[in-house]
Amino acid sequence: MTFLKKLSATSTFKAPIFVPSIIFILLVTIYCSLYPTQAQTALNVAKQVIFDHFSWLYVLAASVFILFLVLLCAGQLGNIRLGGDNEEPEYPFLSWVAMLFAAGMGIGLMYFGVAEPMLHYAKPLHDNLTEVERIQESMLTSFYHWGVHAWAIYGVIGLTLAYFGFRYKLPLTIRSGFYPILKNRIAGFWGHVIDIVALCSTIFGVATTLGYGALQLDAGLNSLGWVSERSFSTLSVLIVVVMCIAAISAISGVGKGVRRLSEINLFLALALMIFVIVVGPTLLLFSGFTENLGHYLSNLIDISFRTFAHEPEHHSWFNGWTVVYWAWWVSWAPFVGLFIAKISRGRTIREFILGVLFIPTLFNAIWMTTFGNSAIWLDQESGGVLTALSSNTEALLFGFFDLLPLSSLSSTIAIVIIALFFITSADSGIFVINSIASQGNENAPKWQSVFWAVLLMVLAISLLRSDGISALQTMTLLIALPFVVIMLILCFGLWQGLMVDNQYFGKKFTQGSANWTGKHWKERLDKIITQPKRADIKTFFFETAKPAFDELVLEFEKHGLTANVELTNTGKTPSIEFIVSKENVRNFLYGIRCQPRELSNLVVEDDSLPNIEDNKIYEPITYFLDGREGYDVQYMMKEELIADVLKQYERYMNLAMDHSHALMTNDLGESM
């Protein structure tokens, strides 16, 4: 038995996705472990190439994602449900909102809640700012990096997975979003390439987060005196311990326990935030939140497209902050996107977008205000204690707690929160990575979870050894770049899918079948299953339409009206018209033309439809003098066609008798 056959027999891995991804990741891991200096140099070169040539793409793409989601939300497509039309939301609204809050929380907010506002305050982007302007700029930048852009990135992936997964019944994988573009080819080479990029992006995104978690956990333990100065060995031990716990959690089937742990952790985080609000500058935080939010909203368009194209002195700041953030969000998009997709079944697209874009963003804004504004205020009150710590980012959170009452208790709670987020993020990351590598199959054997835990652990440690957190960021940048392109194409695929959806579910019964009864059902069935040819339409003209129109002419003339029938049986478009002539208003015209229509190749190639011979059919389509859209009348019998003409004539007369429609009904033929 070959290796690939053994792999298929003992796992849920899809070899075309799993094998190339593992080869790439192992090569990176081995290279960084054996040649850390050379790896650091190579990664720095790669990072600079991305910064120099592609930083604009990250910024433009993030803004495009916001505009795309807002467009969907505001239009008719927002009414489409993520599931069947009658499907109810899987979770009650408040539970769904709570889970979105939880999705917005994580190691990143714990790490950067104090650090980012303080770093922007201590080292402002622009020179010669007043104290107030420094505070405003630091909070604006923090809101920008943790605001609606991040959730637009997550939202695009989440909406794509939810829509094609629950509406089209496709697997919850990234390739499913390419179905409108690639059709059945998503099961082939290009589908594998898409999932490989998604898998590698997620792995490096999770590994980067593990690196941040290890650094901050180490700083917390150091602040309490439990460990000495930071070392590579300490960070490695922390990562190993956390990943072992995550692996045990993943294989022990304690999913409900992990969810309960996440809920407890969210409660602790909220309690910690409330503690800071109460013991910190409470009124300042309330007024600061209002001002921060207003400043963010008023500057949103400007900062959304800001690349400092004419300010090269700011390129280093821009690349090191905004571009790295956007790449980090992109790398986490399959992870968070899958989570929010799974909890959003039954929601409308409008509900999904409003919830995903604004609920976590609001929570992040409150968190950043609470910790950021409090940190700046404490720094001012203490004479710059936190500014002095700005070179040691990981220690800022614990330096912040040292300036508050009950510092030991709050620091201990923070360490517990970080550790629990560390564990639950790793556990969830293993689940998502398993799902991508298995092409949506969630019934993976337990050893696969152990495998991914070990791989993430080794990858995070090897990259930390190479160049610390910078190496993790660089790999995230590299892998996120092709995934940004994939996400932009996903927007196009999602739009195509939604447009087809809107047309398909909005399709009404044909006008000709509106008044069907059981009478003539055999003749109608014969017409339905037989491909209509051009000759069939001519037969319809002579055997159904002309006799019907001739009877109408006789009856109209009995009432003193001038009516006639005109038949054009030559040329590319044969037609027949029933015309009632008028003097002051436009003539009444009910016409039927022979109109060709292309058939779907799926129908032509279906052997179960023996009466379909080629990819073109011909239909008798109505047309009117006012240019209204016509409809197919091929299934109408003579009496039904007469009734349809009379319905159109009744409409015509009602409009003609109403002076408010005179502009449309007036006949300008003689006067022009």
UniProtKB/TrEMBL annotation:
The chain crosses the membrane at residues 12-36, 56-79, 91-114, 143-166, 187-212, 232-254, 266-289, 323-340, 352-371, 383-401, 413-437, 449-465, 477-498. The keyword Nucleotidyltransferase does not apply. Belongs to the BCCT transporter (TC 2.A.15) family. This is Transporter. It is a multi-pass membrane protein. GO terms for molecular function: transmembrane transporter activity. Keywords: Cell membrane, Membrane, Transmembrane, Transmembrane helix, Transport. The lineage of its organism: Bacteria, Pseudomonadati, Pseudomonadota, Gammaproteobacteria, Pasteurellales. It holds the Pfam family BCCT. One of its GO terms (cellular component) is plasma membrane. Its main location: membrane. InterPro entries: BCCT_CS, BCCT_transptr. It is found in: Cell membrane.
